[in-house]
Amino acid sequence: MLKTITAILLASSASYTLASPFCPWKLPSADAKSDKYINLTVVQFIQLNDEELQISYGGGNLGSGHDVRLPTKNREEGTKLLKSMSDTAKQCDK
Among residues 46, 53, 48, 50, which one has the least CA distance to residue 73? Predict the structure, then answer.
């Protein structure tokens, strides 16, 4: 039974693209002194509203995750940030 499951997993994994282990995305910041990046492969969820884009990432057991809240002027600005994240993730997948 285990050999059958292993064979199925190996056969099926050939048709799927695995996520990159590291995919840095630069967080927009007004601070010119340093740059901050998050690894897109550990993002768990993104919440967008008219005032901010919230990115939750790196969560494990017992609520050990982190949140980044990026203030936005409007929903369109947040949508542009999401597109930037998506474009970066596509580049990491190549």
Answer: 50
**Three-class DSSP category at 43:** strand
User: Which backbone phi and psi does 6 adopt, to 5 degrees?
Assistant: -60, -45
- What is the maximum alpha-carbon separation in the chain? 58
Using the CB atoms, write b or e for 15-46: b if 16+ within 10 Å: eeeeeeeebebeeeeeeeeeeeebebebbeee
The structure tokens listed for 2 are: 């285990």
With beta carbons less than 8 A apart as the criterion, state whether 81 and 72 touch: yes
CB 89 within 8 A of CB 40: yes
- pLDDT tens digits, one per residue of 25-60: 999 987 778 889 999 988 888 999 999 999 998 876
What gap in Å lies between CA 14 and CA 62, rounded to an integer?
Answer: 34
pTM for the full predicted model: 0.69
